[in-house]
Amino acid sequence: MDFVFADDAQQKQPARPGMGPLVAVGGICIPGEAVSKLEGRIEALCADYGFPAGAEFNWSPGRHLWMNGNLGEEKRQRFFMQVLKLTQDSGARAVVVIEDASCPLATDATSPEIDVTRLFLDRVQKLLGRRKSDGIVIVPWPGRDGAAEDKFLAGCLETPQSGTDYVKPDHIMLNVLFSPSRFIRLLQVASVITSCSIAAVSGENQFSPPVFASVKRLLARQGERIGGVGLKLHPYFMYANLYHWLVGDSDFWKSGTSFPLPLACYPYSSHSNTFSSWL
To answer: Mean pLDDT, to the nearest integer, of 246-255?
Structure first.
């Protein structure tokens, strides 16, 4: 039995040219026997850094969080990289799906948020299948209100029961479960991974690069490929070349066929910050 801890993130104003607002869902898949030990090791690391009991960590901590005024930039980066190293050593693997909200959806979902959730659960299903395991997905209790919250939750809960057009999620047990993130350090790790990844993909180049280097070592892969496996960018015809620049993929796979990266006909063919293409 594996446990999947996941969270969502948004980036409304990406720095990378040609890129629209982004939505993401990402998380970590951890063998059940490693969960308690990893949770304890991260808790001990938090204590070493001076976190008060119960104080959360977050990629972009608000003023209400202890780390906002007590962990400066370099110390914060070092803390995140140590957390990710502990997570990697536990046997965990990360999956992050990021979608351009200005582009057509990948499924028959009614919003980019539900669409990216379904794509994420597809990747989790495939990862669990490769590991010959079943899993339970746990996400933070969302801080949304009214109808928007109900709609988001409905999309999350519906997918494990019905599947998408691509995969029936027979390896995901039960519906998605919810818990306040302050109670589970591994939900906070999932939040850091998701938020750091969307920042790196969006073109933020001040805080995310050193931590994303640690995230990359966690991302699930097939062979030498991370693109479409541990990191999924939608739509591919806009962002396939970023697999080359961001995670070092040498080939892009589509419908069982590989194409060498970077692809001259797609955006970002010459550089991760150059949008021009032959499309």
So the answer is: 94
